[in-house]
Amino acid sequence: KMDGDDDDIPQLSSHALAALQEFYLEQQQREGMKTSHGFNQYSIGSIEEDWQLSQFWYSDETASCLAKEAVVAAGKGGRIACVSAPSVYQKLKEQDGEDFSVCILEYDRRFSVYGEEFVFYDYNYPLNLPENLLPHSFDIVIADPPYLSEECLQKTAETIKYLTKGKILLCTGATMEEQAAKHLGVKMCKFIPKHSRNLANEFRCYVNYASGL
């Protein structure tokens, strides 16, 4: 007879069931805290890479190094713009309490969790920016154009030149050295940025000011 087969299915005791529900509830609360209370909200990887958007996050060491460089270059009370460089933005936000302000210009709307500091940005429309982003209002602009093409660099360069008072920190492929000099007047640094996942293309940093990189 098949009737009695149901009896063999193990049943959780009411005590075990309550413990399991409690576990799931705690897990949900932890997930909720991540978004609502900034629980590690700014750690690199809290928003996962989307390769379809050509997203590759920097390693923790690289993001820290670039963030420190930006703070020094911006100076006391300085303003920093991160254009398509969210992992540097996240690292800057971890240094809460430091004397600078920062905003993130990014195509990926998942970064809108960062509130008013998030500015939707599409490099195809380099000057389609909100009115409160005044020209030449940032002490330094850090940019990492999403694609290794001259068109992408040229359009991103328009945004950078609009925003910066002068200082530019560009991260892009080593193959873009000539175009970077042509469009932004930047020179390659010794510092070699690394990503949390290794990229096939050699990656470099470029600046247009006296830098420790």
Automatic annotation (TrEMBL):
Key words of the record: Cytoplasm, Methyltransferase, Transferase
Primary location group: cytoplasm
Pfam families recorded: N6-adenineMlase
Localisation per UniProt entry: Cytoplasm
GO biological process: one example: methylation
GO molecular function: nucleic acid binding; protein-lysine N-methyltransferase activity
Entry GO terms, CC: cytoplasm
Family matches, as PANTHER family: EEF1A LYSINE METHYLTRANSFERASE 1 (PTHR13200)
Full protein name: EFMT1 methyltransferase
Organism: Eurystomus gularis
